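S1.2 Input.
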Amino acid sequence: MQVQPGLRAVAVCEGAKGILVLAVGLGLLGFIHRDLQQLAEDVVRHLHLNPSARYPRVFLMVASRFDGVQLWAVAVGALVYSGLRFLEAVGLWKDRNWAKWLGAISGGIYIPVEIYEAARKATATRLVLFALNVAVVAYLLWNLWQKRQISRLNP
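S1.3 Output.
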C-alpha cells in the first residue's frame, strides 16, 4: 500500500521543525562563556530598538538571567525535542501507526493552549496556526481510523 501524500507532507513539516529547533539549540551553545547580557544589549542597540519597550525589555531581562548551565539545559532540551520530531517524521514517512499516534498526541497537547491564546487575543497568525494544528491532528486520527476500518474488512 502506498503512503498517502498527506502523511508525507506532515512528515516533512515535522522534520523541518526538528531541523529548526536543532539549529537553535546548537546556536545557543555558541553563547556559552560569553556575556549574554552584553550581547543582548548590543542586538537591541544595533536594531535601534527602545530598550524600555515591552519586547526588548523582556529580551534583555531573559538574557540577564541565563547562565552557562541554563544554556546547556535548553540546548539538551532542543536536542531531545528535535530527536522526537525526526523520529515522528521517519515514522510518518513509513506510514507507522505509532508515529501517527505520536503526532496526534503531541499536536493535540497544544490545542487547549491555542484556544486560550486565541480567546485572549485573536490574531490572524494564531488562528491560522490553530487551524493548521487541528487539521493535522484530525488528519492523523482520521488516517488511523481509516486504516483500522480497512484492517477489519480484510482480516
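S1.4 Remarks. Residues 1-95 form one domain.
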